[in-house]
Model the fold of this input.
Amino acid sequence: MVGLNNFSFAFLKKNEIRELQIFLQKNWKPKQHILAKSKKFLLWQHLSKKKFLDFYICKHNGKIISVIGIINFANSKRYKEIGLSMWISNIKFRYIGGLLFKNFLNKFPKSEIVATGLNEVAIKYYKYFNFNIAKFEKYYVCPNDSRKQIITKNLKKTINSKLNLSKLKTVNFREFYKIVKNKKKISSFKRRFEKHPVYKHFVLKDERFKIYFIVRSVSVLKFKFLRILDYFGSFENTNLAESFSRYCLDKRFHHVEFLHYGSEKKKILKSGFNILDNKNSIMPILTEPYMGLKESNIIIAYKNLKNIKIVKGDVDADRPHNIR
Done:
């Protein structure tokens, strides 16, 4: 533990979990963060070591005053690929948050880091620490014209002119992993999606193309839509929109949502996905809790990425509000 007068910096010990949850209950606004309520979810998301949780904390006179939550993508001891899930300080020690962040970055200067869901204050800090700032592109497929859209507004309809049946098929995770092969990627997919303690994810593949999508069903106002959380493969030379549109009609999904930032933008658009770039067009991006249909952007920050691909399934942009 590194001392600085009465301040100390360290990773959270397993026997300090309750202290962390009490800190979050008192300092997180709005109240009732799921990590403060559910030890099960906390351990699933932030336990990659035997004796410590993936939280870097600052204490003052033995009490937690600031924390950074870490999601260890590669399950690496040196945090080679990580996401930052939360960054919060006691209001009396707001200034210490920047010092905590600087201390953490100095320990892992070459780590590939992603953070999502930044507010205006966080954006200033991330810029100061030389992170790239961007926002998710909001892609979609919608089989309904605007008059029939209930939980969206003014999305472009994807016309089914060729397909009578969707080419999308469900693939079980075991078969999916045979295609992935890479052990680290399999471990990441398994931990983030297959073993998720709340959500039920499944894998879809258009039988014509070599790309796989990890998805889940999201319910809003008694309707459901399909959310793409991640994918494996490339959008190169694909034609996916009609197949997804037909799948929505067959399975009674209102639309498909896909949030992404990275180098494949042109390929995604060429594959048939539409992009939400009009203020008059709206999707329910924030759904837990659902606060009504309104324009929403998720701001992201990243640093040291070799290949830029950020999706909503990274970090905790798709996090439950309650344990069901």
Summary: The first helix runs from residue 17 to 27. The mean pLDDT is 92. Residues 20 and 306 are 33 Å apart (CA to CA). Residues 137-296 form a domain with the Aminopeptidase fold (CATH 3.40.630).
